[in-house]
Amino acid sequence: MLGTTTAGARLRAVGGGANRWVVLVVLCISLLLVTLDATVLHVAVPAVTEDLRPSGVELLWIVDAYPLICAALLILFGTLGDRVGRRRVLLIGYGIFGAASAVAALATTPEVLIGARALLGVGGAMIMPATLSILRAVFPDRRERAMAIGIWTAVAAVGAATGPVIGGFLVEHFWWGSVFLINIPLMALILPIARWLLPESRGGADGPWDVLGALMAAAGVLGAVLGVKRLGAGEGLLDVRTACPLLVGGVLLALFVRRQKRREHPLVDMRMFASATFSTSVGCIVLAMLALVGLELIAVQYLQLVLGLSPLETGLRLLPLTFAAMAAGATGSHTLHRIGPRRMVGWGFVLTAAAVLLLTLMGQDDRPWLLTTGFVLLGFGLQTTLFAAYESMLSEAPPEQAGGAAAIGETSYQLGAGMGIALLGSIMNAAYAPAFTSLGGVPGSASSAASHSLGEAYQVADRLGGAPGEVLRNTARHSFVHGLHVTLLVSAGLLLLGALAALRLPRVMECPTVEKCPRPRREVPLPASREPAEATGSGRRAH
């Protein structure tokens, strides 16, 4: 590992030259692998079930272990990177991610696959905040940083959206383990390149690292995300398996916040949330991800179960959303400079709400142009919102807190995704189930089973056969489309609330460069004899 002086010289060289764009490419490839792994397994679940024969609980953990562990450890590793070096944490994350991918690809039992997925989550949690905080250090100029964040957020959208496409192709042509095996050569290639090219950077190193606080944050986020995911799986709020994780997670997070406020050298400076820009940006990330993941999940079910498309065809249908997100990221810096964060986030939410309302015209027949138009508007609108929110959040945070700020942003991303599945999934189920209360000629037990999901309704209808089976199938299709419309209307309302929240953001993109235009302060002015906190190098802002 390079010494402090050499690392500092490398950081200054990269930050001031064309190589910073090469650094961005390396960071984006890292992010692409992590986000792709979050969704690539979804289409491989039937093949995994057939091969490993997991129980229902084991299958749930095979799917959820990665995002749960990743979300829980983001704050821990994000703040650790601020202390020991973000590049160092990133490189260790590469090694863990590659090794875990090999174990997952060759797993022969459900327990091994669950353990490998959990280890992938550890590697992902080390990689994700490090990429964003290194980006913050390498691009001190805010306009260039805005362009870099636009590319970064577009890559994140590409990874999440293309996961099902790549997974569908690999499962159809090889075996389910190949969805993990593709990570290994890429990690083997990128690790030495990153070690040679990426600069080391650290934040404030005052005081000891709060190990207990880091563990409290990890356990609190794990409990909160686990509880939210159980709600999304249809379990009741008062169910012990749902209420206990939510309660424990909420208490631990409250104690974590209290602890950070009292410590002289906190892991995360909670005073950042006193800034309307920072707190609003975090809230907008949660709302945007809530809409995106919830709608994508329902859209996948619609495309496969109502329109009868294969997993690969479903992934291809979602590609317009990906391309639109890439376009929004590529043009985001120019748009942000011209219209400012407030309008960009607000109009992004409005455009997304319009796309969602357009998709309420979907029915039981395939309408490709309607779906394509809706997905294009949806991808462009949401990516516009996410880009401006991430950029505003990261620019508002002090440089020495970049790892903690990035971890907060990524945790918000994960929480929003979990809440989207839970909230919109619950609304979908509530609108779908009532149609099965009284079906003439269909046994009550069959109607009850069919009310759980459209996929289960099809299985029950096939077993019944004849006229009762046909009645049950048609009822399920009609009810699902009705539930889809209700869910879309609720989503549009939430997105419009996000547009109203965006009114708290600044009108214009302030501070084109950090050096030429220091961040405007909202605290009580200091006496003339004292220097601002940032000028003294203490890395603390007084609010």
UniProtKB/TrEMBL annotation:
InterPro entries linked to this entry: MFS, MFS_dom, MFS_trans_sf
Segments of this protein annotated with the region Disordered: 518-543
Transmembrane segments: 21-47, 59-77, 89-108, 114-135, 147-169, 175-197, 209-228, 240-257, 278-303, 315-332, 344-363, 369-390, 411-432, 480-503
Entry's Gene Ontology BP terms: response to antibiotic
MF terms (GO), sorted A to Z: transmembrane transporter activity
Localization terms from the record: Cell membrane
Assigned keywords, A-Z: Antibiotic resistance, Cell membrane, Membrane, Transmembrane, Transmembrane helix, Transport
Bilayer disposition of the protein: Multi-pass membrane protein
The UniProt record lists the keyword Isomerase: no
Domain Major facilitator superfamily (MFS) profile per the UniProt entry, residue ranges: 23-510
Domain of life: Bacteria
Cellular component GO terms, alphabetical: plasma membrane
PANTHER family given in the database record: MAJOR FACILITATOR SUPERFAMILY MULTIDRUG TRANSPORTER MFSC, METHYL VIOLOGEN RESISTANCE PROTEIN SMVA
Protein name per its UniProtKB record: MFS transporter
Organism: Streptomyces lunaelactis
Lineage, highest ranks first: Bacteria, Bacillati, Actinomycetota, Actinomycetes, Kitasatosporales
